[in-house]
Amino acid sequence: MTMNTKLTTLDLSLNVPGMPGGGVWTITPTLISSGDAHYLVDTGMPGMMEALTAQLSSAGVSLEMLSGVIITHQDIDHIGNLPQILEINPGIEVFAHPDDAPYIVGELPLLKSLPKMLEAFGASFSRNGIRIDHPVADGETLHTAGTFLVIHTPGHTPGHISLYHPDSKTLIAGDALVVRGGQLQGPNEAQTPDLPEAYRSLKKLTGFDIRKIICYHGGIFETDANPCISTLASRGEKD
């Protein structure tokens, strides 16, 4: 029997004094579920473990039930709770692109430091115990809790990936795209070391039939997704 794949967005928030938008910073990991298989895409910022556990519980999933974690890239707000997840559930499989793997596991220092207002949240973060079990490649098909295509979308980091779910025409964009004020935008320029490469990655996304986008920063966008991506990619070519 074929099981349907369910994509659940988990909205995790931190109170951050000085943060624009009322001092609340929200990020959006994604839970992929099908039957007894559950995969978490990105893990949140250090200090969000309680909120992450509560949101998973609301979706009927515990940390012990996770089959795997897929990391879109190395930034601390994406790997921040991975050490604790692995401590609680050491049997899970961890996926990431090899270009970011040395940074994720601690062989190399993270490429980017935290903005001043977030430094305190990452002060005690350690990558001890982090491992990558499954290096993923551009164009690889993951048969996890459903079928997902890995799209290597570098620029924000060298090993940044996005995931495309053909059945629902959904893109899990990581930080390749953001939503601000209800509008789809390119990556955060201040946190993207290679902006031209990031916009070339958006050009790659135009080859997919995308109806819904889940952005780690800004959540769900599903209004004319393909035309909006094409517009952003074209704008990047002109800059």
Automatic annotation (TrEMBL):
<dbReference type="InterPro" id="IPR001279">
    <property type="entry name" value="Metallo-B-lactamas"/>
</dbReference>
<protein>
    <submittedName>
        <fullName>MBL fold metallo-hydrolase</fullName>
    </submittedName>
</protein>
<dbReference type="InterPro" id="IPR050855">
    <property type="entry name" value="NDM-1-like"/>
</dbReference>
<comment type="function">
    <text>Counteracts the endogenous Pycsar antiviral defense system. Phosphodiesterase that enables metal-dependent hydrolysis of host cyclic nucleotide Pycsar defense signals such as cCMP and cUMP.</text>
</comment>
<feature type="domain" description="Metallo-beta-lactamase">
    <location>
        <begin position="26"/>
        <end position="217"/>
    </location>
</feature>
<dbReference type="Pfam" id="PF00753">
    <property type="entry name" value="Lactamase_B"/>
</dbReference>
<dbReference type="InterPro" id="IPR036866">
    <property type="entry name" value="RibonucZ/Hydroxyglut_hydro"/>
</dbReference>
